[in-house]
């Protein structure tokens, strides 16, 4: 949401005080008055993209847990007992992941702005389709933030430790959990 629009909205009823509670109330009223201000992506489209990326992570975790059981089955001598079931389950999870990745790609391709954002993100070494779609879904304001704010929102900014044994040290912490 552009700060200039919020400031103009704040001046409209004649509010001049500058305290956090009043600022928060003004921003809340502004978002009710102009819910799509500053958004480049519709709430529905963002909701679908976010749900798809979250579901992909969930299915990948399921597959990872299944694969972690294979050595335990071999070690205990039960690998033959579960071989067919585990193989079929792994195939189903692989298909589900591929279908979700296809849906995510389709959602990103529906919007020129999103497709451009994905292309720019993927041009960076180490950023592939999964990382770029997750960044777009969980940090839709990316591109309108300073580097410091983006680092803080992703949990990559060094934060001062003001208590405990780490007093005076800095460590990365916080941020949006999915990122």
TrEMBL record:
It comes from Phaeobacter piscinae. Residues 119-178 form the Transposase IS116/IS110/IS902 C-terminal domain. It comes from the Bacteria. InterPro entries: Transpos_IS110 (IPR047650), Transposase_20 (IPR003346). Keywords: Plasmid. Pfam families: Transposase_20. This is Transposase IS116/IS110/IS902 family protein.
């Amino acid at each position: 949401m552009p700060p200039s629009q919020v400031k103009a909205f704040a001046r409209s009823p004649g509010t001049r005080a500058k305290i956090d509670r009043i600022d928060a109330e003004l921003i809340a009223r502004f978002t009710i008055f102009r819910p799509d201000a500053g958004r480049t992506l519709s709430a529905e489209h963002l909701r679908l993209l976010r749900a798809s990326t979250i579901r992909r992570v969930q299915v990948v975790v399921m597959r990872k847990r299944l694969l972690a059981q294979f050595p335990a089955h071999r070690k205990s001598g039960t690998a033959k007992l579960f071989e067919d079931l585990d193989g079929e389950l792994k195939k189903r999870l692989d298909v589900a992941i591929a279908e979700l990745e296809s849906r995510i790609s389709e959602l990103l391709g529906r919007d020129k702005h999103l497709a451009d954002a994905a292309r720019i993100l993927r041009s960076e070494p180490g950023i592939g389709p999964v990382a770029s779609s997750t960044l777009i879904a969980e940090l839709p304001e990316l591109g309108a933030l300073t580097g410091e704010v983006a680092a803080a929102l992703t949990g990559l900014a060094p934060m001062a430790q003001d208590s405990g044994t780490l007093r005076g040290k800095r460590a990365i912490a916080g941020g949006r959990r999915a990122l």
